Amino acid sequence: MNDAVGAQVPTEQQVEFMRIRLYLTQDRDADPARATAALLPAPRRLATVWWDVAG
Length: 55
Fold this sequence. Notes:
Blueprint: H1 11-21, H2 30-39
């Protein structure tokens, strides 16, 4: 298990988790997959760049 900050759970595992929690059969994986895709955050479009300037 990766405990790194910002580590993401693979989509397949998210779908499986949601399917089990909702008591769905494996043939219904498409339903939680659509819901998971709708919840994914948009990629970041911002970056901060800096450098030290010695006097």
